[in-house]
UniProtKB/TrEMBL annotation:
<dbReference type="InterPro" id="IPR012954">
    <property type="entry name" value="BP28_C_dom"/>
</dbReference>
<keyword id="KW-0687">Ribonucleoprotein</keyword>
<dbReference type="Pfam" id="PF23243">
    <property type="entry name" value="HEAT_HEATR1"/>
</dbReference>
<keyword id="KW-0698">rRNA processing</keyword>
<keyword id="KW-0690">Ribosome biogenesis</keyword>
<dbReference type="GO" id="GO:0000462">
    <property type="term" value="P:maturation of SSU-rRNA from tricistronic rRNA transcript (SSU-rRNA, 5.8S rRNA, LSU-rRNA)"/>
</dbReference>
<dbReference type="GO" id="GO:0030686">
    <property type="term" value="C:90S preribosome"/>
</dbReference>
<keyword id="KW-0539">Nucleus</keyword>
<dbReference type="InterPro" id="IPR056473">
    <property type="entry name" value="HEAT_Utp10/HEAT1"/>
</dbReference>
<dbReference type="GO" id="GO:0032040">
    <property type="term" value="C:small-subunit processome"/>
</dbReference>
<protein>
    <recommendedName>
        <fullName>U3 small nucleolar RNA-associated protein 10</fullName>
    </recommendedName>
</protein>
<dbReference type="InterPro" id="IPR011989">
    <property type="entry name" value="ARM-like"/>
</dbReference>
<feature type="domain" description="BP28 C-terminal">
    <location>
        <begin position="1076"/>
        <end position="1210"/>
    </location>
</feature>
<dbReference type="Pfam" id="PF08146">
    <property type="entry name" value="BP28CT"/>
</dbReference>
<comment type="subunit">
    <text>Component of the ribosomal small subunit (SSU) processome.</text>
</comment>
<dbReference type="GO" id="GO:0030515">
    <property type="term" value="F:snoRNA binding"/>
</dbReference>
<dbReference type="GO" id="GO:0034455">
    <property type="term" value="C:t-UTP complex"/>
</dbReference>
Amino acid sequence: MHLDTLEGMGDFMRGVDDVASFLNDTSVGSAVVLKPSSHNTLHRLQVALLSVLPSIPRPAGVRLNWVSQHPGETSTESQATRYIQLLRDVYRLSNSSAHLALLSTHLLRSLFVNLGDDALAFLVGVWLAASSAAQNKSADEQSHIQYAALRHAGAFLEAHVVTQRTVDFQTVLPAMLIMLQSQDATVREAAIRCIAVVIRISHAKEAEAVYAFDAIYGNESSKLQYVDWSDFQKYAKAIGETRDNLVHDPEYLQAFHNEHLGYSKADSKKVSGYKQRILCYLLSHVNACPLPNVKVALLRCLDGVSNEAKVQVLLPTIEGLLTEQVEDNVLQSDVYQDLTTYTAAAFDVSAASDINDPDKNTWVVYEQLLTKAFKDARWERPRTALVHHLQHGLFAKLSMDRKVQLCNKLLYIAVEDDSTALICKKLMSSILSDTALILRLLAGLQPSVDDASQPASKRARVEKSATAIQIEEISLLAILAEVLGSIKLPGSLELISCLLETLHKITHNVAPDTADRRYVEQLIMSAVENFVQQFPASTIVPAGSLRVDTLVEILRTSENPQSFHQASLLMASLARIAPDAVLHNVMPIFTFMGSNVFHRDDTYSFRVVQKTIDSIVPVMVDSLKGKHGNGMGLYRAAREFLRVFTGAANHIPRHRRVHFFTHLVDTLGPSDFLAPIVMLLVDRVANRVVRQNSMEASGSLFLPLALSEHYQASIQLSLFIEVAREVERLTLSSQSTEKPFLEDAPEDEHPHAETSNKRRALALLMFCDQALQRSLSTALASSEEEREQSKTLLSLLLAVATARPDDPSYVEVASGARSAMRSALGIMSAPDFVTGILTVLQSSSVNAQAGALELFGDRLSEVADKTRRQLTPSIVKIVDRIRAILSAASESLARPALRALATISDTICPGEEGPITNTLPLVLDAVRKESLRTPALQALLSFSSKLGPRMIPYLKEIVKTCVACARKAVVGSTDTSPVATAVQVLRNLLTSISTFWGESELLQVVELYLDSCDSSESAEMSLLVKTVAKRASPNVLLPALCGLWERSLANQAKERPKRTLSFLQVVKVSVKAASRPAVLETLRELFKAFLSMFELCADARNLEVERSVTTAFIEVVVKLNETAFRPIFRKMFDWAFAKSHSNRRIVFCHLYSALLDFFKALMVPYMTFAWQSLAEAIRGYASASAEDGELWLALIQTLAKSMAADEDRVFWRSDKLRQLVPLAAQQVPIAVRLNVPEGKDALAGCLVSLLGIIDDDVLSKSLNLDILMHSRSEDARVRLLSLTCAERLWRAHGEKLLGFVAETATFIAEAVEDENDLVVREAHKLKAAVESIGGSIDVS
């Protein structure tokens, strides 16, 4: 019928009261006959058939399993299952609709009447099967069926209460507990109600019978275990007491069981027995129930309960899971994964006793479960549970035999299945904590040893191929060794010995071609190293307790870099606990390392070397110090050991050498071993270094130099002292009782020992010199100890430098010692440094004195001010010594002496001024010498800025000398470098003692400037002149300049214009810098000089000179008031216009224009003096004989500028404008006739300025018409200029001419018809200008 629900049948039973009558054959038959096509008839037939189904009797002779799920197909059992499934479907349909309540009641009544006492078992199957088939139903449908079944079950149980029948319902209680884990609160509430009724029933003292005894699960019911009535009562009551928690939290049941059934030390034997019986009772339902989800639900709520009975009860289920064949989709389902996980979790710490019991098969099942879980990737979750319990107590509770079996099982699994190898190794790493267990495992996996009495057979075995068993043994041992390398155990000598013995057997008894043999060796060495690191820091094992011969053999024979590294690292670790064993093999270790590892350029190899050195070298050092103490005895004893490293230096990659030797020295101890290491490194390259220059030697000595730089000052100084002593032993071996450290070097190739010693000594001195030079930038000698060390070093070097002055073969060594001595001075503290310099200066060695002075000049400026002040007594002595050197006229010493003197002056302190001042004459003498000029000028420069008034007595001589020096450099020498210095000296003197500069000194400087006007040093000279102008007294300077002009410059001005321009620049800056009173005081001389200059301009007509004179004159005018300036201006005007001298007039006009540009309106009133003369001069051009266009241009420009400046019409009033307008208009044809460049533009500009100040329309009209009238001239050029001027006027001031558009249009109309194209074009421009103001005009 394909009915899933009754909900869609509608209300076809509306009004029906008797379902039996409605569904009897007669009634149904009538409906079929009368309405065969009606849906109601169809529903009536369906319901009629459905009402028959609940009454079908159960199959005869069949035992029903009310909790079965899937129907079979052919067997008897499957018929019973179909019958149960049919009744479940009827029950589901009966509860599918609330609209057909009468029909549902009828069907359920029939169903329950047919089932009788089995109704509860049926309902249990309904709600359990509903949860099992949840994947095919919605959560609401599942909960609805479960809720209905639980409510009907509650009614069934209530009936027993009413009838007062005491039945033991323990067979159905687990099913109710499962419903307490539902996510639906209504289902949980219905379940707890059922349990509450069961609790009420169980109040009786005893039960009449057990409900569905051995029948609830069909044939599987025989697997159930039952509890006594009292235990059931107690358990049910405990559940009822937690009713609220169970209703509100679906997870609470597990917490309840953990508390109620969990193990407690306080439990009595009776309570423990009760808990175990209840646990077995519940777990038996896991074995019996066929539904996986039911098993999972029961196991989940008991997951936290640990009891030895758990494994015992569940063993059949576990065996079934291991043996049954399950499809992949089922195996990967959540339910099956949960089932396998919870059953595997039963093997917790409580199962240890059963696993250990040899008479039970629990270990066999557990071993099978381990194999299944670890090899089958789909059993990942059960494997996790097994691993968890092994790590949390189970493994620790196992017996030693079981532990060994378990570990071996894990090893075999790891070897057979690579995918789980990592898991097995992690598990073993976490559970292996017993040394005895590890020893048993190692003993069982060690390769067998050949008979020692048959060495031939042993050799034969090594040469044979590996067997399969051997390969398996090696593979198992590899896994175990890898695990041992990762675990942390307390240090055990027995374990390390066992591992080393295992390594020995592998090395000597396993065929070389066996797979992973080298890998296993490395793993075992790693494991040994791991356990060695666990020993306390102070642990020393007894001598001979560990054998390291196998490791030495690996170092000697291994071609595998990793094996070599591992053996080196292990040897380094063993050095801490077994120093005697390692020390016995120390030379072979580092010898093999030098040949196998040093050349490798990888970080790991380098770290291996470092770690080996860290561990083994200290052992060697302690042994050497214990036998030989410190000093040369220690050096000689360690020499061969140290040469193992220095001899292999070339094998180490270049970029790692410094790091390697730094690390080696740090490990050895720099205070004891830096010196011998450095000397051995220098000795290696001595043959090459002695033939190289300083730069090349620096490269050859890079390694020892970089090594020494790594350490602090005191250690470096100790190194230098040891090197100096070794040099002394090498060069003075006949006088020394102590043999040199480097004397017996095996690589010595020279047949003569003395020559070889000198070579080594020179190389050591070159190293010392280079190292000291590199240290100059650091404050080495700062502490008292370091100061004493630096003094000791200096004394040793001085002793070497002066030891054999008469020996020609000793010259190179002495020179090297002196060079190192100079470098040593550079590292000394300031007081010691100055004292040392003074000592050297008092010696007789010229070379030493020169070097000392150069070093002194370099370093003195770096001394702190406070310290510098404390050095004054010594500085005074040094200055006296320098004065003696300068007096001796030794140029080789004079240059560094002058440089040192300049440095002293730069850092001068009180008390030093007098001695320094006394050296001034000597410095001036040096300036006059070309070879010493540069350093002498530098010293003089420093003096000029530091000595101040103390230089007054020498001022004239200094100025004379500096000027002469600079003039010589500027004029006659290719080397101009002294100019800047000499000029700076003069500037400093002008700044510091300007008051004492007289006319003679100032003129010397000015003349120097004039002489250098053509040189490249003009910038320096310009600064000098500016300084003169600012610092010199203007009352002295200005008259001196005027006198200089009159005496010499005026007569040469025409021939030497550049010199004149330079002089005018001096005048300009001097006047500008002078005060107003000073200018007024010298005004007469100044004006006289300027008048002479203007006369020069009028005669020479040099515009550049004229501009310079005008600019300088403006600077004078700036300093004047009106009272002083007016007569000056009048005299200038009279000078220009008293006589008919056009050039003077031009100069005056240019001057007046410049004054108008600078002073603007302030100069306009002075037009009163010039107007008539200017107007008369302009009118004179009406005559054709007037041809001086330059003058005319100057006049026009002057008038234009005066009108442009007269914004307030101070001078240019109406009366003047009426005179000027016709005169200006008349200049149009004159401009054309004169044809002066810029004349036409100047005239147009003048007319624009004129119209700009006119405010009278009559004058404006007159000017416009007068200009336009020229457009009718016979000369096309005049017409063109007329239109150009008119266009300029309209463009600039069209608003003033707006009323004259008509009359202007007439002239435009005539012009556009002109025969000259340029005139026509200009007419159109004028037309455009007029139209831009007055609108369109008609010129047709």
